[in-house]
Each structure stands twice: as C-alpha cells, then as structure tokens.
Write a structure and sequence with these properties.
The complex is a heterodimer of chains A (about 400) and B (about 325).
Chain A: H1 5-21, E1 31-37, H2 44-60, E2 64-65, E3 68-76, H3 82-94, E4 100-103, H4 107-120, E5 124-126, E6 141-143, H5 148-161, E7 166-172, H6 175-191, E8 194-201, H7 209-218, E9 222-226, H8 231-242, E10 251-254, H9 263-266, E11 274-277, H10 286-299, H11 307-325, H12 332-339, E12 343-346, E13 349-353, E14 360-371, E15 377-388, H13 391-395
Parallel strand pairs in A: 1-3, 1-4, 4-5, 5-6, 7-8, 7-9, 9-10, 10-11
Antiparallel strand pairs in A: 2-3, 11-14, 12-13, 13-14, 14-15
Helix pairs in contact in A: 2-11, 3-4, 5-6, 11-12
Chain B: H1 2-5, H2 11-17, H3 24-39, H4 44-66, H5 75-92, H6 96-118, H7 123-143, H8 145-148, E1 154-155, H9 173-195, H10 197-207, H11 209-214, H12 219-245, E2 247-248, H13 255-268, H14 274-293, H15 298-312, H16 316-333
Antiparallel strand pairs in B: 1-2
Helix pairs in contact in B: 4-9, 4-12, 4-13, 4-14, 5-6, 5-12, 6-12, 9-10, 10-12, 13-14, 13-16, 14-15, 14-16
Classes of the chains: A alpha/beta (about 400), B mainly alpha (about 325).
C-alpha cells in the first residue's frame, strides 16, 4: 500500500495537533507540591531516587498532611538546564498553583528557581546542590541534602586524626570540585596537616593513570578525593585500587563516592576505602531500618536508597510539617518560620534546619568499606561527628 | 531545455528567486502570539522559551540554510551572548535593550574572529571545527570560575524594567512581550538579510561556491560576514535567555543546545526562515507537553514523533507544506 503525500502530511499534522492539545488536568482543593528533577537523560538516576522516596512517603501517609490532601506534580528539568527549571517553576506556581517546590540537583537550576521562590513566597527545598552559598539566594530556600564543606572539611580533620600528616587532594576540575578542594584543605590544615599537591582532573576523564602517577610520586600519607558520583567516581576508585595504591599504604578518603550502590563495581579491592558522609543505607538506627525495608519491599533490590533518596524523603517531611503549621493556607513566610530550628528524625540520624541560615545541620560519619559475613561490601561507621553546621557559612558570615 | 524556459521548474532556482513578502504567515503568527498572551496566560513562560528558540533557530537558518555553513557548534554564540549580557548587567548597566545590543556585538565579533579560522574548511572538517570551537569556549568558561562562576553559573545580576516601565513579573508577562518584540525585530532583520543581494550571494555560495568565486565573489569574506550576522542574532537569543532567567549556565554553551537547535531547524525546514518558527513551536511545545504528561518517559514520545516527521516530511514541516501547495497549484493550472 502506498500512502499518498497528502495523506502522510495529514497524519503528521494530526499527530502534532493531538500532542499539543493534550494538557494536564488540575485537581482542586488539594495542596500541591511541585517536584522538579531530572527524570530523563543522563541524570535520571537522581530523579528515580527522588520519586522512589516521595511516592513511598505519600503512600505511608496516605497523601494526607495533618488532614490536608497532598498532591505531587512532577516536572522534568532533564539535567542542568536553568532556563527550563525557571520556566517550569514559574508555571508550577502560576498555573498549577503549587504551594511548595522540592527537588533540583544542580546549583544553576536551584539558583534560577530562587528568584521565583522569593517573588511568589513559595518555600523551596533544595535536595542536592552542595554549594554552600545557595541557601542565601532566597529566604524561602532550605536544604535537605548536604553541603560539600559539611562533609569534606570533617574528612580532612578525620584523616589527620587517623595519623596522616601529609595529603594530596585530587578533585574533578569544576565548581563543586573547587569547593571540595578548599574544604579538604581547610579541614586538614586546621589540624596541622600539610597538603603536598592539588591534582585537578578534567570532567569526563576515563584514564586516570597520569594523575595516579603524580599522586604516587608525591608520596603522601593520604589522598583526599572528590569526583562527581557516577562513571568518574567509580572509574577513579577502581583505577586507584587496581594500581595498588591502597595496598602501598596511601589511604584514600572520599565523600559520596563510596556509596553502597557503587561498591559492587569496585569488588573486594574496595575494602579499606575511607569515606566521610552523611548517609549509608546500612546505618544502624530504627528509622533507617524501616526506611530501607519499605523501599526494598516496594521497589525490590533496586530500591536501595542513597543520598538523593533520603534527601527527598526528608524534604517531603519538611513540606508536611509546613502544611500542618500553616493549616493548609498559602503562607510562605509562616511556613518557613515553622521549620527554622526544627529537628526531625531522619533515616540518616537527627537533622535540624538552622534557624539562622536555613541550612541543614546533621551528623557526619567516618566510615570504612568492609566485607560483611554474607559477602556484601558495606560502609562501617568508625566515628560520628554530631550536628555539623556548614563550615563555609561560619567562615563567610552573611553581610 | 525545459528548465531554461521555466526557471521556476528547478527547485534551486525556485528557492533562490523566491522573495519573502509580508504575507498571511506573518499575520497568522502575530495573531497567535497575541492570542497566547490573552488566552493562555499560564503558558507565558513556555511561550517565552519558544520565542527565544525561534530567534536562535532563525540565526542558525541564516548560516546553515542560506550560507550552507554546516555547524554543530552554534550554541557558542548563544552562550557568548548570554555571558556578555550577564556581565553587562553585573558590571555596567542593568538596562535590558542595550544589553541585547552589547551581546549581539560581542557574539558578532566572535563570529568574525572564529569565522576567519573555521570557514576556510568545508563539509566534515567544518563540522568538526565548529564543534571544537564551541567545546573550547565551553571549557574556557568552565575553568574561569572566578569570573564566569564555572559550573555554578553566572548569577546575582539584576535586570531593570524594560524601557524603565515594565518590570519582569512573576507571571512572565513582561518577559513574553519583550521576547516577542525582539523576535519580530530579529525576524524582519533576518528577512532583509535573506532577501538582499547579499542573501542571494550566500545562497549562490551554498549551491556552488567555486562558481561564485569564478564570478568574482569574495567567498570567504561573504561567508564570514554571514556567520557574524548569524552569530549576532544567536547572541541576542542567548542574551534574552540570560535576562529572563537571570542566570547563565554552562549549558548555554553545550553541545546539547547546538544539537537541539539543529533538530528544530530540520524539523521545521531549512532555508526558509518560516521553518525556524514552526520547528521551534513544535519542538519546544511538544517537549513541554510530552514531559508534562509523562515526566519519566517523554523522550520516547518526542523521539518517536521526530522520527515520524523525518519519515513523513523529509524537508521539514514547512517544506512538506510548501511542496503540497506547489502540487496543488500545478494541478490547478493543468486543466
């Protein structure tokens, strides 16, 4: 059968028209929460974790916050696209009438939305961007992830406390990497350690041999490493252990890079990698046990949570609290007031929203990778630093 | 020699001799833009993105559709325009319109400089050079964190009300009207360029650059000029985005954007300016709607539809349409 040109054209036009005409139906009388995240593209794993946690929280609370119905509206930013993030936030506020916004992985996207948060007085919860200054962009911004300084500065301190006197810092060469560099240095030098060298690795590097050679030649006691979680972090650690640096006595301290979901890729050689971070799915507390159990029951083995999951779970808990505190009314100022100084029991341990800076205060754990009886690689907690505030904000007080 | 008697029978001659008059298309588009403002106030931020994309696609159409400059790095101008507007607002003056002009100037200048280097090449080499050029600027912006903010983006600047009267509001009304006005100016400018002798020369170069050279046309010179004009318009698009978003990220220089604008143009139809308009509307609006319906799997829908368009209308939507009207007219004439 041969379709004539005109008919083909008609089909094409009709399909487009149908696509454009569809729009989402809105529901009335419920409190709407906009969720902005990367649900497609290379950063989709973030979105998946957000969604896992948020859907679970909604299910556990039957979508009711203090008696008010809560509806989540998901919008896909599709990566680090500030213009799109701003457009979606604007539409969520203006068209869908959301009272709260949560989500966003990247510093530029959250900064683009900050403007909307201020103008519309919509409390906005940053789930991941680790740049310390972000929360200053709007008085309606808060954070349930972590700041790079919050984990990397203690990492430097812990490394020194473990008897390491000299260090080399290896970090990916982009803005968060620079934060990591500065904060590792701050923590390590504060204790009296000496940084021998800073090695910057370009984003997207897959062959780390030249960098590891430089590291080896510098002969430090410890390597402090920051890589974006994903192919680079796994690739670097794999090259590190394969090259025998760990066995040669150069310990390595990382942050989120040693998360459990990535450990199987490293194999048994990963045993002995130190990390300083805020969350592990094997953390030993009742909230976490229930959290992990519920997630794995709902999503299977893929449900194993990471930093994104727990940040989203706590983020929605904050939103629920704000809804209760404002009795479901749209009052951004009162909502923000209600969470200042609030402490909730998170799966990662107690977290508090700093009354002054609106930033998160949380425990930071020193962990080491070890092999459990059943052959699983897990992070074992060695030490805990209680209620760590973001050191950058202490060093750079607001004007 | 039927072709000589009826020059319009040769598609290339047809497209070269066709001039763009103000026609029903412009009227319909103006009506659509006005209707969106009054009927779909909730979609103004999206419509603003569409307008910006149209400007960007028009700029690419001038280079690719008229001059045959195959580029995979057009975002470099968009990004440079954006950063220029950002720096201008941060350090010099927050007035938006002068910001656009400065951005156009900077991007145009970069077009001249990079054009002199890359436009000596053709075909695949040219594609690779434009790509390399964009990647270099992207890396430069990433490494100069102290100035550009690197991966954190350039932010913290204010933009004054347009003409001192209309401040950028939460509903995106000012941003929309402002962008559409800029779009109209850019569209008219692009049409003047495309219809001018210069535009005709550019099309000649695209068809047969050797022949144009033999006719005495300074080919490289003309191509560089066209590249600069195209770059300046792209810079305006980037500057608009920077002013509306109040943040410039590295993504404005990224390959994804260069790729997207190319898809937009192929979707709409290359070398006819209208294609840029239709392509942008379809691409941006469709992505947005598909993503709103299913935020998790919308790329499948979008990808499927693009495959469908390329299959059903290889010349783009506008190309399909004009081919149809052409067929229609021929049939009318026959009996």
């Amino acid at each position: 059968m041969k379709i004539s040109g005109a008919l083909k054209h008609l089909i094409g036009t009709a399909l487009f028209a149908a696509g454009m005409a569809l729009s989402t139906a809105a529901m009335a009388d419920t409190i709407k929460v906009g969720v902005l995240g990367s649900f497609s593209g290379p950063y989709a794993p973030w979105g998946v974790q957000f969604r896992n946690a948020l859907d679970l929280y909604q299910e556990q609370h039957k979508s009711k916050a203090s008696g008010y119905d809560v509806e989540l509206i998901y919008r896909d930013v599709g990566g680090n696209e500030p213009a799109r993030a701003k457009q979606l936030a604007q539409e969520l506020v203006v068209r869908d009438g959301v009272q709260y916004i949560i989500g966003l992985e990247f510093t530029p996207t959250i900064l683009a939305v900050a403007d909307i948060a201020t103008e519309a007085e919509v409390p906005t919860i940053n789930l991941n961007s680790g740049t310390s200054s972000v929360t200053r962009a709007s008085e309606f911004l808060t954070r349930t992830g972590f700041t790079q300084w919050q984990v990397a500065a203690p990492a430097g301190e812990y490394a020194f406390d473990q008897g390491k006197k000299t260090a080399v810092i290896v970090s990916a060469d982009y803005a968060p990497g620079k934060d990591a560099l500065d904060s590792f240095r701050y923590g390590f030098e504060k204790k009296g350690g000496k940084i021998l060298q800073e090695i910057k690795v370009p984003l997207g590097t897959t062959d780390f041999s030249t960098y590891l050679l430089r590291l080896q030649e510098a002969k430090p006691d410890v390597a402090l490493v920051f890589m974006p979680v994903g192919p680079m972090s796994v690739g670097f650690l794999k090259a590190y252990v394969d090259r025998g640096l760990l066995k040669a006595g150069i310990d390595v301290y990382v942050g989120a890079e040693a998360q459990e979901t990535d450990l199987p890729a490293l194999g048994d050689a990963a045993v002995g990698i130190h990390s300083v971070f805020t969350y592990s799915p094997y953390q030993d507390n009742p909230e976490n046990k229930a959290f992990v159990e519920a997630l794995t029951k709902k999503y299977g083995a893929k449900g194993l949570p990471n930093l994104a999951t727990v940040a989203a779970y706590d983020g929605l808990a904050l939103v629920y609290h704000m809804i209760g505190a404002t009795k479901g009314q749209k009052d951004g100022k009162a909502a923000m007031e209600s969470i200042k100084g609030l402490t909730i029991q998170s799966p990662r341990g107690p977290i508090t929203i700093d009354a002054k800076t609106r930033d998160i205060i949380q425990n930071v754990y020193l962990r080491v990778v070890e092999k459990r009886g059943d052959g699983m690689l897990v992070n074992k907690t060695l030490a805990t630093q209680q209620a760590v505030k973001d050191p950058w904000k202490e060093l750079n007080p607001a004007k | 020699m039927r072709e000589l008697r009826d020059p319009s029978a040769l598609p290339e001659m047809r497209s070269a001799l066709r001039t763009h008059r103000l026609g029903w298309f412009e009227v319909v588009m103006l009506a659509v833009f006005a209707a969106v403002y009054y009927l779909l106030p909730g979609y103004l931020p999206l419509a603003t993105q569409v307008a910006i994309m149209i400007i960007f696609a028009i700029s690419l159409d001038l280079a690719l559709g008229y001059g045959g400059i195959e580029t995979l790095g057009h975002a470099v101008f968009y990004g440079i325009g954006g950063y220029a507007a950002g720096f201008y607002a941060l350090y010099v003056w927050q007035e938006p319109i002068s910001g656009l002009l400065v951005a156009a100037l900077v991007a145009g200048l970069f077009g001249v400089l990079s054009g002199i280097v890359v436009l000596r090449a053709k075909g695949l080499t040219l594609v690779m050079l434009t790509l390399a050029c964009a990647t270099m600027v992207h890396e430069f912006a990433n490494s100069m964190r102290a100035i550009t903010g690197g991966d954190d983006g350039l932010s913290g600047y204010r933009i004054d009300p347009v003409l001192g009267l209309f401040r950028f509001d939460l509903f995106g009304r000012t941003a929309y009207v402002y962008s559409v006005c800029v779009l109209i100016v850019v569209f008219l400018l692009a049409r003047i360029v495309a219809n001018s002798n210069f535009g005709l020369v550019a099309r000649g170069i695209r068809s047969n650059s050797q022949r144009m050279q033999l006719l005495g046309v300074p080919v490289l010179n003309r191509l560089v000029l066209l590249y600069a004009v195209s770059g300046a318009l792209a810079g305006i698009a980037g500057a608009l985005s920077a002013q509306v978003t109040k943040l410039v990220g590295l993504n404005t220089l990224a390959f994804t954007l260069s790729g997207n604008v190319l898809i937009v143009l192929i979707l709409g139809g290359i070398g006819r300016l209208y294609g840029a308009v239709i392509g942008s509307i379809v691409f941006v609006a469709l992505s947005d709607r598909a993503a709103a319906i299913d935020p998790f799997n919308w790329l499948f829908i979008l990808g499927g539809l693009i495959v469908l368009v390329v299959w059903l209308a290889p010349d783009g939507i506008v190309g399909r349409f004009s081919a149809l009207t052409w067929q229609f007219r021929k049939q009318e004439r026959k009996p």
